[in-house]
Amino acid sequence: MRRDINIIMKISIIVPVYNAEKTIEYCIDSIITQKTKFEIELILVEDYSTDRSYEICLALKKKYTEIKLYRTNGKGVSAARNTGLSHSTGDVVGFCDSDDIYEKDVFEKVRLFFENKDIDIVIGGFYYSKKDSLNTVVQETHSHNRQRNVEGHLLYNMILNDGRILGSVCNKFYRAESIRDFSFLTELEYCEDLVFNAELVEKNNLKAVIVGYPIYHYIINEESATNNKDRLFTNDSRLKYIVALERLLGEASDRKYKAFTEYKIVTLALDFLFHDYVDGERKSNLKEAVDKYKWGFLNTIIVNLPFGGLKWLVKGFIVSIRGLRGN
Q1: 65: which residues sit within 8 A by CB, 6+ positions away?
Q2: What is the C-alpha to C-alpha distance for residues 17 and 44, in angstroms, rounded to an integer?
Q3: Where in the sequence is the domain holding 317, given as residue range(s)?
Q4: Among residues 119, 130, 194, 254, which one has the fewest Cβ atoms lying within 10 Å of its Cβ?
Q5: Is residue 61 located within the same domain as residue 205?
Q6: Quick count: other Cβ atoms within 10 Å of Cβ 141?
Q7: CA distance 80 to 143
Q8: What Cα–Cα distance (Å) separates residue 302 from each residue in 11, 210, 311?
Q9: How would you write the pLDDT of the chain (327 residues) with one tens digit per residue?
Q10: Cβ contacts of residue 190 below 8 Å, gap of 6+?
Q11: Which runs of E-coded beta strand occur in the chain?
């Protein structure tokens, strides 16, 4: 069934803003200048920055009628996104970080997909840009090379374990009615996007289309929280990503969802075990996670081969040789 194309659809883009005075105008420009038949609603949620972000947002609000501006009291990105969701009025919802940008004219491509009422989520590829040790900008492309429709267990698995899909909300657009009853968990510091997407897909059995090209551009900030290694761990030396995934695991409704989540936990643990800054209790906790969830990992190796399963199987073999239990 297709939507009447004479009806104007609205897209709500939610942008949390915190200390983004250097990037927010570039970000907003990539949204406002989209050539599309969508009516654009741009929701900025400023989180009491310590720089000039709020003043810049105020000026931009006066300049563009598409912008709505709200503030949260230093509650973090998840609370900001929830605030944006509560004020959004669009038929379609997207999320953009204040230091990133959308690719040119992707909104119109997305709109055409949502004319099909059977589509709940549109997922695109993405670019990563960061500076190397020589201060040269390096760009990586992550994208499927063809369009495909996915749902259910496969979609859940790809969100967790396919690096071209990611758990992020930023390279995805959502039919508003599909996410109306969902919100981001404000108590999570990491993986809040992934948990949001995984729970959304599992509980609502949503249908998605994966497009075969990048739609979003991540600009990597080397000073961001994910690059502060100590912040990745709790006070009792547990990896915060795994803490979030274990919460997701506890709510998984069947064995397949659990196994895919266990697979993700083990791959993360194996990856972090190879970093020099992981030692002592941190290393012990990661080894414990591998041992605890290894059967879910092994049971999904075959399913995950297209998404990097073989690579992680080799890593697991190397780690086992080093002695997961011993050193």
Answers
A1: none
A2: 7
A3: 228-322
A4: 254
A5: yes
A6: 11
A7: 28
A8: 39, 22, 12
A9: 344 445 789 999 999 999 999 999 999 999 999 999 999 999 999 999 999 999 999 999 999 999 999 999 878 999 999 999 999 999 999 999 999 999 999 999 999 999 999 999 999 999 988 765 555 567 788 888 899 999 999 999 999 988 889 899 999 999 999 998 899 999 998 999 999 999 999 999 899 999 999 999 998 876 554 557 888 888 898 999 999 999 999 888 888 899 899 989 998 998 898 888 888 999 999 999 998 988 777 777 765 555 555 555 555 555 454 444 444
A10: 226, 232, 240, 241, 243, 244
A11: 10-17, 39-46, 67-71, 92-95, 101-102, 121-131, 137-142, 148-151, 172-175, 207-219
- C-alpha to C-alpha distances, 281 to 236, 284, 318, nearest whole angstrom: 8, 5, 20
Same domain, 100 and 237: no
Distance, in Å, from the CA atom of 241 to the CA atom of 116, rounded to the nearest integer, reads 35
Backbone φ, ψ for residue 66 (5° rounding)? -70, -15
Place of tokens 């709510």: 251
